[in-house]
Amino acid sequence: MLTQAKKLGDELEQRKADLAASTQAAIVDVLVRKTLAALNQTGMKRVVVAGGVGANKLLREQLDRECATSAIRVHYPELHLCTDNGAMIAMAAAMRLQAGREAANTEYAFDVKPRWPLDTLV
Predict the structure, then answer these.
(1) Would you call 19 exposed, middle or buried from its count of C-beta atoms within 10 A (0-12, 13-18, 19+)?
(2) Could you give the CA distance from residue 75 to residue 64 in angstroms, rounded to a whole number?
């Protein structure tokens, strides 16, 4: 997007809406195609859309349309629950504290685990 914005130069201010719309369309197209490819590869007939992207109206419309043609059910959280992953990370931390796996401290130091399996929370 930055590359395209730079190419627009002085026209950027007048073309911001076009740039945003075309970026959104490209992202939605990729997400829908990759989701359909994953469903096709796995044979699954249900998909759950989670996180902030679940609030995107265009994504919901296109995914619903494409999945309906293959009898695939799509599940979305209610819009007010479509938050970014920070909320999910906070929930994982709360579950670890509640399960006694970690003790709260005031140092705010922790090991970074980018692929932390959620099944280790119990």
Answers:
(1) middle
(2) 9
pLDDT mean over 64-89:
87
Distance of alpha carbon 19 from the chain centroid: 21
Please report, for the chain, how many H helices and E strands are present, in that order.
4, 2
Alpha carbons 63 and 49: distance in angstroms, whole number: 10
| Low-confidence winner among 8-17, 24-33, 78-87 (lowest mean pLDDT) | 78-87
Per the CB < 8 A criterion, the answer to whether 92 and 115 are in contact is: no
Query: How big, in percent rounded to 5, are the helix, strand and coil portions of the chain?
Result: 65, 5, 30
Give all domains of the chain, ordered by start, each with its CATH number: 1-83 (3.30.420.40), 84-122 (no CATH)
| Crossing angle (nearest 10°) for helices 12-42 and 57-68 | 30
Looking at the whole model, is its pTM more than 0.70?
A: no
